[in-house]
Amino acid sequence: MKHTESPSRKGDLAEYYAVTWLWDNGYEVFQNSGCDGPIDIIAMDNKGEISLIDVKTGAHDKRYGDNVYSAHTSRTEKQVELGVKVLLFIPTSRKLRFVEHKE
């Protein structure tokens, strides 16, 4: 396995793209300094609203077509309790989008 193909390296790449994407969208960004926990990033928009974010790398979901990616994981009970939002990174296009959560 190439170093760039390891799961932790893919996660690192997704988080770096997430930071720059959030900056481009007007957020101040604060990263988790550890590798564990329910939150990867804390982001504050220009109105001062705080978002707790978990970044996930999307996997191709063949059930819905060629260009559909999903996180293939759901938020933990703790993440739901905290109101954590999932920011999905699409590795083929290097684009990001927030996941719509069903509460």
Brief descriptors of the model:
103 residues, alpha+beta, Trna Endonuclease, Chain: A, domain 1, two-stranded antiparallel ribbon, 2 helices, 7 strands, 23% helix
Question: How do the helices and strands line up, and which of them pair or pack?
Answer:
Blueprint: H1 7-24, E1 28-31, E2 41-44, E3 50-57, E4 59-60, E5 69-70, H2 77-82, E6 85-90, E7 95-98
Parallel strand pairs: 3-6
Antiparallel strand pairs: 1-2, 2-3, 4-5, 6-7
Structural overview:
With 103 residues, the chain is of the alpha+beta class. It has one domain (3-96): 3-Layer(aba) Sandwich (Trna Endonuclease, Chain: A, domain 1). The chain has helices spanning 7-24, 77-82; strands at residues 28-31, 41-44, 50-57, 59-60, 69-70, 85-90, 95-98. The strands form 2 sheets. The chain has a 5-stranded mixed sheet with strand order 1-2-3-6-7, covered by helices on one side. Strand 4 (59-60) and strand 5 (69-70) form a beta hairpin. The longest helix has 18 residues, at 7-24. It is globular and about 40 Å long. It starts with 6 loop residues before the first helix and ends in a 5-residue tail after the last strand.
